[in-house]
């Protein structure tokens, strides 16, 4: 509505008021008594918005104009991983227990699942807090406030590979965890640091064996020594047995000492890390006699000189035969 229109409307009402007043004055001599429209204010007959429009001549407020409404929308929090990465590499040693972590914030009723990926195939392991794998070594442990941990017990080489933690949002969230199984290398050495499958000791001497284990990312098991089925680490029945083990970065060294060896100490000695990582050496304790293996070694060391003599003897015989053949007129080769 324009300002000039408003002004014309105001002027019309002003003229109407003046006209109405003059009309009442002019008709005052008649015998007819004028009736007020209604008791009260003589301006009650005016439109209700008259004074509002009259007092605000420069305000344009159309009745049909709709008020602008600002609409605000609040979205639900979207689930997200608490850790800032979407790919994780985890290493564990053979036969140990390992946790795969999946921390999710603002889950909002969504479900967390663990999957095992083999190529393009996905195998369901857990759904929520329920385990669906037929392998009893797999289980789900939830730790407050947000960690959905997949536990793998006694990990073996078949467990190596990619795993996926999935959140059932739209689109789904996926955390890739690659598990590497490290198989330690075990070797038993003698007191001189030499590796041998068999070792000979004289009665009364001290048996000393060293077990060297490499490729240990996180030592989680004690190194044990066994003589046959008998555990030696805490053996006190025989006496004179001691085990000293040093855990070093990435490897371990364990030494076995058996004082005053006797024939009962003969047998298999096994160094073990856990239940699956083992190495065995055979120990012989002799009462003064020289073992056949040592005799063979001595024969090998002294056998070079007789062998040379045999060669020279054969060459000599060959030369003699050739000389005799030439003398009788029958050269060899014709």
TrEMBL record:
Q: Where are the transmembrane segments?
A: 309-328
Domain Ig-like residue range list: 84-169, 184-282
- Give one Pfam hit by family name: Ig_3
Q: Which organism is it from?
A: Drosophila pseudoobscura pseudoobscura
Q: Which UniProt keywords apply?
A: Membrane, Receptor, Signal, Transmembrane, Transmembrane helix
PROSITE patterns named in the record? IG_LIKE
Gene3D superfamilies with a match to the protein in the record: Immunoglobulins
Extract one GO cellular component term from the record. Answer: neuron projection membrane
> Record keywords: Transmembrane helix included?
yes
Q: Which domain of life is it from?
A: Eukaryota
Quote the protein name from its UniProt record. Fibroblast growth factor receptor 3
Q: Give the signal sequence positions.
A: 1-28
Query: Cross-referenced InterPro entries, in alphabetical order?
Result: Ig-like_dom, Ig-like_dom_sf, Ig-like_fold, Ig_sub, Ig_sub2, Ig_V-set, Zig-8
- The gene is dpr14
Q: Name one GO biological process term.
A: synapse organization
